[in-house]
Amino acid sequence: MKKGMYFILTILIISSFILVACSSNGRDEVDTPPVASEDELVLTLDELAKYNGKDGRPAYVAVDGVIYDVTDSAMWGDGEHNGFEAGKDLTEEIKDVSPHGVSVLSRMPVVGTVSE
Q1: pTM for this one?
Q2: CA–CA dist 69, 59 (Å, integer)
C-alpha cells in the first residue's frame, strides 16, 4: 500500500475507537434508574411511611426502589395526588394507573432508595 492509504486507514481506525468510546452502549439515559449517593437515605417501607407529607413532614414516594421527593410539587398538596398517598411504594400505581407514568418523576429530586 501507498503511504496515503496507511494514513487513511490509521484515521479510520482511530475514528472507530473514538466512536466506540463515546457510544452509550445502546442504553437510553432516560431508562437508567437513578442511584442513591452516600448522602441519600436508605429507608424500609415502614420508615418511608413517615414521609407522607402530613403535618409539615416531607412527601416521598418510591417507584422501582428509588425514593423521590414530591414535597414541592403543587400536584402533591398535603401528600396526596389523584387518590395516591405519599409515604408509599407507588410503583404499580405510577406505572399501571397514572396517565403520565414514570416520565414526570424525572423532574423530582431523588432522595434515596428502599432497602429490602
Answers
A1: 0.68
A2: 6
